[in-house]
Design a protein that fits this description.
single chain, alpha/beta, two-stranded antiparallel sheet, 16 helices, about 45% helix, binds D-xylose, binds nickel (II) ion
Length: about 425
């Protein structure tokens, strides 16, 4: 195991809930079986390169504050190499099996696209070696189509066709690289695919172009033999005023309208869910019942702020319901739980990287066990089944199997107009859940 960048950090091991060691797992035991799979197989944790390696700790009011061992290297390509090595040291020490990156996270952008691609190729070669040596895997790759000023009006939805072409070239390359590194998924987050004002926007054309772009990506992935999942990541706002892929339902509508539903699944992020005015569980549930649950960006947003704070998840209650849905869906593979999360700016020390990931991994490990027990006991499922019993017999059964219409229902209602309802028992159910925590 590498020990070059974080010599003071040991390999993180399980020490149990009584441990007071911040550099130990209290709940995460990769090999422990929960039901028919190990924790590692259920949770499929992933480190997000942009936050954990490339992120500097800058915010809109201040420059980078992070202390990182590779920042003393001034040559950008040498620094990129060091960062990639450091990534694998982190993965190994944390026992995290996967990582995710944007093309521009791992290699610096140069003057020309050709040169930029050459930079990328060099880092990709190093990454391939490190993958082969460590057995770590790429959960997903993606292209950064939002940082550079050329994407000021969007990428696939830009008013400028040259930008559409540039974005296509970038995604083509990013899919190739993801494929070359054995990536299990490829993600599209439409960072600037939305609008700022309708006064300057042809929304119909922008949406058509976004669909054309995604069809081209589907075709190209098939052409080069990439069989990983293609994922769309919804987010409602930030940076645009209106973001086209704003939540799971808007993505579903878009994918259906443009004949893309067979080709895409959805990558759900907690912080994006709450910005959309939904719960995390709602978004996962919606994806599950529509058969499009692909992967998850397992972070956590601040409920008092209106932007994507991308915190390390530590709220066990929320994670329980996220994993309850995942268990009901039969698991996440080939997707995973990607920590699309950054440390708070005051947590600038290198060891905070480990402490933060341990906190999130333990949160999900603990939540997995709770969700498994809650689902297995069946108290919630039984209550729901009983609540809808009227659709399994008599008139309800005829409604459910579609064998009845308004005229018959009117005749029925005329004879049965003394309606009896029963309690929804929300408080009772919440108390039941609390018994499992
Ligand atoms: C930004 C998104 C982004 C995607 C990958 O808010 O969460 O990080 O996950 O482009
Ligand atoms: Ni994300
Ligand atoms: Ni986000």
């Amino acid at each position: 195991m590498q020990n070059q960048f974080f010599p003071d950090i040991p390999r993180i091991n399980y020490e149990g809930p009584e441990s007071r060691n911040p550099l130990a797992f209290k709940f995460y035991q990769p090999d422990r079986k929960i039901g028919d799979k190990t924790m590692e197989q259920h949770l499929r944790f992933s480190v997000a390169y942009w936050h954990t390696l490339t992120g500097t700790g800058a915010d809109p009011f201040g420059v980078g504050a992070n202390l990182r061992p590779w920042l003393s290297i001034s040559d950008p390509m040498e620094q990129a190499r060091a960062r990639m090595r450091a990534c694998f040291e982190i993965l190994e020490k944390l026992q995290v099996p996967f990582f995710c990156f944007h093309d521009r996270d791992i290699a610096p952008e140069a003057e020309t696209l050709r040169e930029t691609n050459r930079n990328l190729d060099q880092i990709v070669e190093l990454t391939r070696e490190l993958i082969a040596d460590s057995g770590k895997q790429l959960l997903w790759g993606t292209a950064c189509l939002f940082n550079h000023p050329r994407y000021v009006h969007g990428a696939a939805t830009s008013c400028n066709a040259d930008v559409f072409a540039y974005a296509a070239a970038q995604v083509k390359k990013a899919i190739e690289v993801t494929h070359y590194l054995g990536g299990r998924n490829y993600v599209f987050w439409g960072g600037r695919e939305g609008y700022d004002t309708l006064l300057n926007t042809d929304m119909g054309l922008e949406l058509d172009n976004l669909a054309r772009f995604l069809h081209m990506a589907v075709d190209y992935a098939a052409e080069i033999g990439f069989t990983g999942q293609l994922l769309i990541e919804p987010k409602p706002k930030e940076p645009t005023v209106h973001q086209y892929d704003s939540d799971v339902e808007s993505c579903l509508n878009f994918l259906r309208a443009y004949n893309l539903l067979d080709h895409f699944k959805i990558n759900i992020e907690q912080n994006h869910a709450i910005l959309a005015g939904h719960t995390y569980q709602h978004e996962i549930h919606m994806a599950r019942i529509n058969g499009v649950l692909g992967s998850m960006d397992a972070n956590e947003g601040a409920y008092l702020l209106g932007w994507d704070t991308d915190q390390m998840a530590t709220n066990i209650y929320e994670a329980v319901f996220a994993l309850y849905e995942v268990l009901k869906a039969g698991g996440l593979a080939p997707g995973g739980l990607n920590f699309d999360a950054k440390l708070r700016r005051p947590s600038f020390q290198p060891d905070d990287i480990f402490i933060g990931h341990i906190a999130a991994m333990d949160t999900y490990a603990r939540a997995l066990e709770i969700a498994h027990n809650l689902l297995g006991a069946g108290e919630i499922e039984d209550f729901i089944a009983e609540r809808y019993r009227s659709y399994r017999e008599g008139i309800g059964r005829k409604i459910a199997d579609g064998s009845i219409g308004f005229k018959e229902l009117e005749l029925y209602a005329l004879e049965h107009d003394r309606i009896v309802n029963s309690s929804g028992r929300r408080e009772m159910l919440e108390a039941i859940v609390n018994r499992y925590l």
